[in-house]
Amino acid sequence: MEIARIVGLALITTLFLLILRQEKPVMAVVLSIVFSVVIFTLMMEKMSAIIDVMQEISRKAEINNFFLGTILKILGVAYLGEFAAAICQDAGEQAVAKKVEFASKIIIAVLALPIMIAILESLMELIPK
Length: 129
Fold this sequence. Notes:
Radius of gyration: 20 Å
Distance between the termini: 58 Å
Number of helices: 4
Shape: elongated
Mean pLDDT: 90
Helix content: over 70%
Number of domains: 2
Strand content: under 5%
Number of strands: 0
């Protein structure tokens, strides 16, 4: 099972981090970043499968590709923002992590605007004048 490998790798990394944080805190941050990149790389195939399924459903439902693309961008911003914030927190930079989270939320709101406008326009067409 893939989750067992990830949990095992996480536990081993955690043990090394506990030791390194006492002796070489900079190396602990580097190890944490390397672990994060490894997990991210392992999950790329899963993320690709999710995108493929969403594209197939979108095609079958005859949904405009613009909306699917926007939703995928929003998901990407959310995941990358959280990923970057977690790395910042691991490095002890909570203030930087909060700024990354804030920026991610603003970018998501901007990306969602066209979808919100389309929904509102559709609702306005349904309302009798």
